[in-house]
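Researcher: We plan to redesign the surface later, but first we want a full-length starting point. Tokens attached.
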């Protein structure tokens, strides 16, 4: 079995797997469990720190003093990277995509935390962001001793955070239980790729479903396959045979958008669980899960694991007026 790469162990692990019976009772269908990766640590909450644990270990081993990465202005990944770098004493440069390539007028949510952590924020427009790998490589070359972490830390290094996570989750389920799905928000592909590699490594035939938060399912699948192919080339083994499903049925109007119906679903889910779901990632995935339950995909005899990938800080960057009015007229 291929060895687990080094980790800086910033994440507080294991995170619990908890049943949320009030959610199940209200929505009907399966018993819903939540894998609480929102509890990986305050300031580093979410799935991002699992992947950063391995990337930052590689950066330190390489002697890097600066880390360069990218994401949207409200990127959970960039926020987690900035705070992790502050903890480790590394300089952090983040390239942030904004609609016009300019700094937002107001500091809020994840962007506020990036600034508080001392990250150097460089803003780029969507067209430039399409060349993000080239932009990061140029920035690293200009800095000299810098380490590049791709969008979402989603590559053959970062995915190991979720290989490890699958080993963790497999020990937490009730004995003999196989979930009808591991349902999770998916974007840059690293979380899903790690789950697939981890399932194959364990011989665990569990349905892995990535609910896209922006891109077509075909593009998400391409990213996942590319990560798995790179990992297989590095470790000298075959590409894992364990499968996965990507769905783009709940992308709505695209990344970073949410309809009033989605927002109202998020409020309902919070009132039934006491958990925070941000509209960009976990909220969109939770809406997708509710809709699949309504369509009859999961029944009363099923267990479904909703993998909460964190991102609660972004909740404070949204306007909730319409959603709250819809529920509390």
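Model: Full-length starting sequence:
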């Amino acid at each position: 079995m291929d060895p687990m790469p080094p980790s800086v162990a910033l994440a507080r692990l294991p995170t619990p797997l908890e049943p949320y019976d009030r959610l199940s009772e209200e929505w009907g269908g399966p018993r819903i469990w939540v894998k609480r990766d929102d509890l990986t640590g305050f300031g580093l909450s979410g799935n991002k720190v699992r992947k950063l644990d391995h990337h930052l270990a590689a950066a330190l081993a390489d002697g890097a003093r600066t880390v360069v990465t990218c994401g949207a202005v409200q990127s959970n990944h960039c926020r987690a990277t900035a705070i992790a770098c502050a903890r480790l004493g590394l300089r952090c440069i983040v390239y942030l995509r904004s609609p016009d390539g300019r700094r937002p007028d107001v500091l809020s949510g994840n962007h506020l935390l990036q600034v508080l952590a001392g990250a150097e924020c460089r803003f780029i427009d969507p067209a430039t962001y399409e060349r993000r790998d080239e932009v990061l490589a140029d920035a690293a070359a200009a800095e000299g001793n810098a380490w590049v972490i791709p969008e979402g830390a989603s590559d053959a290094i970062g995915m190991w955070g979720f290989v490890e996570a699958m080993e963790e989750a497999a020990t937490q389920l009730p004995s003999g239980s196989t979930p009808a799905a591991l349902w999770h928000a998916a974007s840059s592909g690293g979380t899903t790729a790690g789950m697939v590699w981890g399932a194959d490594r364990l011989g665990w035939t569990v349905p892995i479903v990535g609910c896209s938060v922006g891109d077509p399912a075909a593009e998400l699948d391409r990213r996942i396959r590319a990560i798995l192919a790179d990992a297989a080339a590095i470790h000298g083994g075959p590409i894992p045979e364990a499968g996965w499903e990507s769905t783009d049925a709940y992308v709505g109007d695209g990344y970073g958008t949410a309809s009033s119906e989605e927002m109202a679903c998020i409020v309902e889910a919070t009132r039934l669980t006491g958990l925070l779901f941000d509209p960009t990632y976990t909220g969109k995935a939770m809406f997708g899960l509710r809709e699949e339950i309504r369509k009859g995909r999961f029944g009363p005899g099923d267990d479904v694991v909703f993998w909460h990938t964190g991102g609660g800080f972004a909740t404070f960057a949204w306007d909730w007026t319409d959603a709250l009015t819809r529920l509390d007229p």
